[in-house]
Every structure is written in C-alpha cells, then in structure tokens.
Amino acid sequence: MSPLPPQPLSPLDGRYRAAVETLGEHLSEAGLNRARVRVEVEWLVFLTERGLLGSAPLDPEAVRALRHVAAEFGAPEIERLAELEATTRHDVKAVEYLVREKLADLGLTHVAELVHVACTSEDVNNLSYALTVRAAVTGVWLPKLRDVVARLREIAVAERATPMLSRTHGQPATPTTFGKEIAVVVHRLERQIRRIERTEYLGKFSGATGTFSAHVVTDPELDWPAISREFVTSLGLDWNPLTTQIESHDWQAELYTAIAHAGRILHNLCTDVWTYISIGYLAQIPQAGATGSSTMPHKVNPIRFENAEANLELSAALLDSLSQTLVTSRLQRDLTDSTTQRNIGVALGHSLLALDNIRRGLDEIAVAHPVLAADLDGNWEVLGEAIQTVIRAEVTAGRSSIADPYALLKELTRGKRITGDDLRAFVDGLDIGDAAKARLLALTPATYVGVADALVDHLPEV
Question: Ramachandran region of residue 450, left (φ > 0), alpha (ψ -120 to 50) or beta?
Fold first, then answer.
C-alpha cells in the first residue's frame, strides 16, 4: 500500500474546512502568532511614546511601519517563525526574535532591547489569546448564532398561530402553536447571547509572578500597575490586577460554559426538529441532486440536524474540558494551559459547523399544516383537561354538583380515542352553567391553545 500525501487529522481542516475556515484567521497557530507580534509591537510603541525605561518617542512614520509588521503578518513571517522556533524551542522567544529582525530591517535597532522587556511569555500569550478569542467570538461565532436565531424568529412569527398537538412524554397533550414552541428556543438563545456579549476579556501584564518585580527594580519611581492597566486597556481588554504568572483564565471558563450552554439549547432544537420531521409535522424540501440513501431512492434524511447534533456534542465536550482545565494551574504556573488553549479553535469550530448546518437545515424544512390539523382532529381526548378544569370552577361557583371531575374525565378519556361528537355529547349532558357549557361545546383541539399566539410577542424587539 502506497503512503498517502500529508492529510489533516481533523475533519474541520479537511471535509468541513469551508464551513469553519474563518475561525482560522484568529484561532490558528498563525493567528495566535500574529496577535503575539501585535502585542510585542504595541508594548514597544507604548514604552517609547511615554519615554519609559530610558526611551524616546519614535517618529510617526516609524510607528506606522512597526504596526504594519503586525497588520501585514503573513506567509513569510509564518515561515520565518518556524525556522526560529526550530532553534529556540520556544514559541514566544521566536516571536521576540522575529520582531527584533523587523526592527533591524526598519533601522530601529536602537530600541531593540525594549522588545519583550520586563515581560514573561505569559504576559504576551494571555493578551494574544484574549484578542484572538474575542475576535473569533464576536466577529465569527456570534454573528453565525445571531443568524440562526434570526431565522428561528422568522419561523416563530410566521407560525405563531399554527395550532399543533403537544407531545409531552411523547404522548398527545394540550395543544400549543408551532410558532410559540420555536419562540421558546429563540428566547433561551437570546438570553445566552446577552451573557456572551457581556464577557470580560481579561488581560494581565505584570511579569513572572504577577508582582511587577523586574519593573520595579528597573524603575522604582513608576506606578507599574497603573502603566499595566493603561497598556492592557489600550488593547481593548479588561485589566486583571491580581494574578500569578498567568492570567487565571476564569473569563475563558465562563465564556466557554456559556457557549456550551447555547450549544445544548441548539442540540435540544435539533432533536425536536428531527422528531417533528419523523412524525410528519415538518416536511423536508428535497434539494436538487442530493441523495438521501445509497439504496433507498425515496429517502430525504434530516442530515443537517443530525450533523449539528453530533458536532454540538463534540463542541460541548471540548468546551467543558477547557472550562475545567484552564482554571487550575499549579502554584504560580504550569504549562497545562499551553496545549489546552490550542484547542479553543477546535471547540468553536465544531460549534460553528453545527450552526452552519442548522442554518441550512432551517431553509430545507416547512411546516406540514395539513398533518398538524389532522393530528389535532384525531386527538379530541386532549380536551379532557379543559373540561375537568371548567367543571371544577363550576362546582366552586355553585353551578354544579359533579363529584370528582378529574376522575370523571379520566374514566372517559384515559388511554382511549374519542371523537368530537363523543365529546360534545358528553359535554351536552353535564350539569354545569350555560355559559361554561357553550364555551366547551365550541372548543376544538385546534382552538385549545390558550394565548400561545400572543406569547410570541414576549420576544424582545430586534
């Protein structure tokens, strides 16, 4: 057997690359290194702009050229970093050497010793991860989730008055509307979106053990915590004043927990949609050229939702692992977070792939209104709840003397199929007030939906 050419191990980098490649702009090794270069450059600019550690301000053109190094980070820099790291065996040190080389190219060697000055690698790393994760979540993942929620909202509004038999425990139950059920999902997801939008992307910049020791001994007159705060917030991040060598990653754990929670809500949507398809409530729209089964030509399979289900489970497992692992670091620092954080993109990638499938899948289904109507008409027994509740109110008001209305309806309906005529005949013979009897005689499974339609209005406006 001849060997294959080099192949990706992850399907995210192979079969599903097109659906997730936008994350690679941020959560790849190259994306991380670009952010590291940016942090190193911004620290150098920050120091020189303020004349710190014996420096003097650079001219504006030099500053623009330096920032251009980070902004235009690409294939040549990726290749050069690989060469440098082959020697240094240290990824951040390789970044430092790359920036020094760029300074030499720009004729700025007089500030070369300010590159990475007073920094531990984790000062650069934690800011770089905060920048890349923020960009990936706010620029790629959240917009995809919002797009899914927007489509669900459209369905909820369009089908808000479409009556549907509920299936509590999988059995016929008090009717609802299809739109109201989808609105529940929208409401749940929008709560998670608000949680994720409130994420604090924390950063530290305080040296080898979070004490500013090297900073103070170099220039004891400066307020280094204030300088650190100013630098971290200049990157658009939130400053963490109390850390060990590492930023404690609590914000990451909180974020990944919220993303996993949103994924579990979506997983619930997928299983419900799959079930609605299986019982005929939702019809699948055949896609031109698509094959449902390699042997059964008639089949249209709910593959979008099945794919999403599986990828949401993978994503949740990885996000849970990240949340659990990243909050622990032995004493002042260990390296368990280093390899763990390199899987952030994988975790979000499986979630993004699921979102892509859900969004596509929602455009490939349609509510089967005749099926919903027929199912309601075939389950008149679900009105037993309404009848026994009305009787109990009539008894309380002194307009009926029926004993144990619940037992009466249980005897009539439990485990039985009854028709509309059967139920109307039963109601017509009840000892209740005329107004109550009229309401019950007019009731059908399709109209027994309470205020489900109006509940959709509780979705916040967009």
Answer: left
Report the residue count for the chain: 462
CB 158 within 8 A of CB 152: no
The 10s digit of each residue's pLDDT in 315-359 is 999 999 999 999 999 999 999 999 999 999 999 999 999 999 999
CA distances from 146 to 122, 153, 282, 339 (A): 33, 10, 23, 30
Q: Which residues contact 310 (CB under 8 A, 6 or more apart)?
A: none
Active site annotation includes 293:
yes
Q: Which of 234, 278, 293, 338 is catalytic?
A: 293
Low-confidence ranges of the chain (pLDDT < 50): none
Q: Are 382 and 172 in contact (CB under 8 A)?
A: yes
> Rounded to two decimals, what is the model's pTM?
0.94
- pLDDT for 290 equals 66
| C-alpha–C-alpha distance, residues 325 and 329, integer Å | 8
Residue with tokens 């059920």: 181
Per annotation, catalytic residue among 2, 169, 294, 458: 169
Please check whether residue 112 is in contact with residue 324, taking contact to mean a CB–CB distance below 8 angstroms.
no
Say whether 169 is catalytic. Answer: yes
